[in-house]
Predict the 3D structure of the following.
Amino acid sequence: MSTTDASDKIKTVVVLVQENRSFDHMLGWMKTVNPEIDGVSGDRQFFNPISTVGPAAGVLYFGDGSEYVDPDPGHSIQAIYEQVYGVPFVDAASTPITPPGVASPPMSGFVQEAERERAGMSETVMNGFRPSAVPVYESLVREFAVCDRWFASVPASTQPNRAFVHSATSNGLTSNDNKRLVAGLPQRTIFDNLHDAGFSFGIYYQFPPSTLFYRNLRRLKYLGNFHQFDLTFKDHCKNGKLPNYVVIEQRYFDLKILPGNDDHPSHDVAQGQRLVKEIYEALRSSPQWDEILFVITYDEHGGFFDHVPTPVVGVPSPDGVVGPAPFYFNFDRLGVRVPAILVSPWIEPGTVIHEPSGPQATSQFEHSSIPATVKKIFNLKEFLTHRDAWAGTFEAVLTRTTPRMDCPETLPEPKKLRAREAEEMAKLSDLQTDLVQLGAALNGDHALADENPERLAERMTVADGARYVQNAFKAFLEECERCQKEGVDGSQVVEVVKRPTSVKEDDRAVAQRKRPAATLFGKVFSCLVCNTSQD
């Protein structure tokens, strides 16, 4: 398909990136629905040895028993190294993070690494969902397209991979590096390219958006691009007001009233299914439906088994930045395969796409394929990095000459898979800790000695973290609005600066009573515009 064809068909690209599931774990058993999918069709088709150094210990086969998944398997860069190569990472000298001469990783260490994390966890990582357990995905796989060769951009955890989704680089990030995330990732994003070319974008958030880890999105001019999902998304769909590029940010905190719907273990996958159903049905009923491409994928595999070897040949570094010690990763191989579903009335039912046809011989579908495809659809001038210039694009999935009229208007109602309520008093996950620390950056707490973000997160429960992040984002938005009223230039990055109030001990209760509602922790803050941001 030519770029012109895709540009004529699609005016809005919608992106949802869920959390921490591999392709085989989430969609592998969809091969029983569509045999063309490179998935799983039998209980004893794929296995891992219990020990890669002691074959006599036996093997564990991949099954279809996933429902509610708890606890969260390992998915750090060193854990993934062992899962993919079958041996533990020791150091960069004796176990190079990209071993030379291994063109096809054996994918043999999932069981061994899981047992190293926690006894019995191997049963969790070696199971996937039956199609009937994820009925929304089963319907979308039947009705639209699945990509069975889409990989995480980095063999690492959440934030490096989420960074690639909209910028085709993590700027050297190979872990959820709190200090760098708080400061904000400096790279240019697809949001910037779209804005500069005159196209619109919108970030529809249910919890404070993780896209604010990009420092550029903290610019004052982008304040109006953030929309509360529950208040605006369906209305924008109904009235044909969706922008050209739509990003959905889900609920990352698991609460009794508002359960997490990002699919991160130990959240109920049924909640994620309901979110996808809600998004799809709003898009389907929109007057913009015939011009929409909806992309659903996952940031990384979350430690769950996948049988397809991760690509390690011909993968370019996005920008030449080398990751930190002790791995010194050159960003020269991809992560584990993850689910990817493409939805549009321009797609034939039951479509399966495998490897891309270019632009290079070694090109693959990975998260950088999103900005690469957006560049094609909207005829943007420049790539973001060497990685999106290399990544496969997926506009070729839009094969029809006319949009379908038979796309389902509704999707099945998923059944609850978790019997108990959300554990609001549980400790924060790594992702939730990152978001608390983002909140501390947005509301100014990160600069206060008595509110160290790491210590702050350590003493929080899930409920505490959710409340803190919501209040922090609210404070940030209020400061942005104040800056706008003061006429601050929109190209500037807004930071909130707090300073301790000067009160005597006897006056503390009075000061607390007089504290404005939007002010947190008894401190006042003012708007500081930072001129050191990077384009």
